[in-house]
Fold each of these.
Amino acid sequence: MNRALDVSLSLLASGARLGTGMSVGSIGARPERALELYEFEACPYCRKVREALSILDLDAVIYPCPKQGPRFREEVKRRGGKAQFPYLVDPNTGKEMYESDDIVEYLFESYGGGAAPLLLTAGPITLATAGLASALRPGFGSHYRPARAPERPLELYSFEASPFCRIVREQLSSLEIPYLLHNVAKGSPRRDAFVERSGKMMVPYLVDPNTGAALFESADIVDYLEDTYAL
Ligand SMILES: N[C@@H](CCC(=O)N[C@@H](CS)C(=O)NCC(=O)O)C(=O)O
C-alpha cells in the first residue's frame, strides 16, 4: 500500500478511538514480571487491552495469534480451552483470563491508581469505536504469513495510539513474531531510560537481540522484519 495512505489510515484508526492509549494515566503497583498477552492486532477486543497497557505504563510479552497462525493459537487452546482473543497471563499472580472487559478491569484493579477511563468502559460505544479502528485497517495483522520464528523475543518500544507503531505491530502480528512490548506513552516515567538506551525520544523503536539490530522508522522496521523473518 502507498505509504501516505497507510499512515493516514492508521492515524484515522487512532482518531476513531480519540487517541486512547496516547498518554499514561494514574498508575499503581508495578508487576515484578512482565505480563503476557495473546492477541492479534486487528482484533477490537485486543485493542482495548493494549490501550489499557499503554495507559497503565505496563510492559507485556506479546504473543501474536493471527488467523491460521501455527504457534500461539495452539498455546491459548491448550491453556484456556478455546481459541478466543485476547487472553492474558499474569505470571505475578498466576491469573489467566479471556474477556477483554474482565482483563481491563483486572489490570486497572491490580496496576492502576483509579478507575479505567470511560473510553474503555463504555460498552457498545467502546466496542463500536474499537471496531471502527479495525475497519480502517481491514485485515492488517489479522492473518498469518509464513515466517521464521526468532530464537528470542524481539523488543518494541511503542504506545497504542501511535499510527507508526501500529504499522510495525501489524507486521509483527502477521509474521507471528513474539516481542516484549515496552509501552512509553506520553507521560511515561520510563521515557528517560528509553532515551538513554536509544538516543532519542521516538517510537517505534525495535531491538532484535537475535541479530543485534536496533532501529527507528516504521517503514525501515517493516522492511527489516520482512527481510529477516518472512519466508
Ligand atoms: N467477549 C470477548 C470477545 C472476544 C472475541 O470475540 N475475539 C475474537 C477476535 S476479535 C476471537 O477470538 N475470534 C476467534 C478467532 O480469531 O479465531 C472479549 O471481549 O474478549
Amino acid sequence: MFTLIPEEIDNYCEEHTSDESEILYRLNRETHLKVLRPRMLSGKLQGTFLAMISRLLKPKAILEIGTYTGYSALCLAEGLQSDGVLHTIEIEEELENIITKHFSQSPYDQQLTLHIGDANLLIDQLNLEWDLVFMDAEKKEYIQYYSKVLPKLKKGGFILVDNVLWSGKVVQDIAPNDHETIAITQFNHFVQNDSRVRNMILPFRDGMMLIEKL
Ligand SMILES: C[S@@+](CC[C@H](N)C(=O)[O-])C[C@H]1O[C@@H](n2cnc3c(N)ncnc32)[C@H](O)[C@@H]1O
C-alpha cells in the first residue's frame, strides 16, 4: 500500500504498534498468498487504528462498505457492545469463502453479517441506525454512499473514509480522464461544505477522513 509518509517512519510506527491477533495475522497472510490485490487489506497499523476508534466509541451498530477479505471488519468488531452488530457489504462473490471462514473463527461471529452485493443497492435495504460507518469500496461512488448513509447515522456518530488523499494525487494536476482522483476531490469538497457534519483528514496511510454527524 502506498504511504504518504517516508517508509522508515511508517516501519517505525508499525514496529511500535501492538501485534495483530492470531486470527488477523492468519487472514493477512492468507490474503497475501491467495487473493488478488492484497494491498487493499487495511493491515496492522490501520487495523489497530480502526479497532481503537471502535473501542472508544463502543458502537451498537457498525456498517462497513467494502469488506474485501474481512480484515477491517474484524478490527472494527473489537469495539462492539456485547449485543452490537456489524454489517459489511462486498460486491465480489468469490471473496465470500475467505471472509466467512475467518468470521466463523472469530469471537464476534454471531455479531457479523456479510452481504454480498452492490452497496449502492444494499445500503438502503438495511434498516438500522448506525453509530459507526467505514467507507472503503469504490472511490467513484463515495458521494452516493455518503448521501445514503448520513441520514441513517446517529447524531454524534462517525463515518471513517479511507483513501481520501489517493496517493497524494488530490493536490497534483489531475488529468481529465483520472476519474477516481476527480471523484475523491469532489467527495472531499462535498463533505467540507456539508453543514451537517464536522470533518478532518488524517494524513495517515492513504488519507483517512473522520466525519462526525452534528
Ligand atoms: C479497499 S477494498 C476493502 C478493504 C477492506 N475494507 C480492508 O480494509 O481490509 C475495497 C472493496 O470494495 C469492494 N467494492 C467495490 N465496489 C463495491 C460496491 N459497489 N459494493 C460493495 N463492495 C464494493 C471491492 O470488491 C473490494 O473488495
